[in-house]
């Protein structure tokens, strides 16, 4: 149940980022919510699988930049999830620039943490 709650929180966060951030567009179909939920599922799986590895590899840079490089790792994971959903399903998010992906990763982090705190662990 915990994974489903986090997945739905990520879906709400991705929808907010697609709505707020210019340069982030939903592509690949007519029903935006299906595309967002599929993208959120892929992003959640990428976060489970790759995020701990990338955090460990980038730990020295994260330490030197006082944690700011952690945002670059989140941006890279957003790019990976976008590439995977486009390659596997032919849909997902189109990311125009690195700046829009960077801002979108910040929005997704903030919104998903807010939604997760509202949902709670139960």
From TrEMBL:
TM annotation in the entry: 33-50, 57-81, 93-119
Cross-referenced Pfam families: Phage_holin_4_2 (PF04020)
Assigned keywords, A-Z: Membrane, Transmembrane, Transmembrane helix
Superkingdom assignment: Bacteria
Name of the protein this chain belongs to: Phage holin family protein
Organism of this sequence: Ellagibacter isourolithinifaciens
């Amino acid at each position: 149940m915990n994974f489903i709650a986090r997945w739905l929180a990520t879906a709400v966060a991705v929808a907010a980022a697609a709505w707020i951030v210019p340069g982030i567009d939903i592509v690949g179909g007519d029903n935006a919510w299906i595309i967002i939920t599929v993208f959120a599922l892929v992003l959640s799986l990428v976060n489970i699988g790759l995020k701990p590895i990338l955090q460990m590899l980038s730990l020295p840079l994260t330490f030197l930049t006082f944690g700011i490089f952690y945002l670059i790792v989140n941006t890279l994971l957003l790019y990976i999830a976008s590439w995977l959903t486009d390659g596997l399903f032919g849909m997902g998010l189109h990311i125009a620039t690195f700046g829009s992906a960077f801002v979108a990763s910040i929005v997704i982090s903030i919104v998903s943490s807010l939604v997760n705190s509202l949902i709670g662990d139960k």
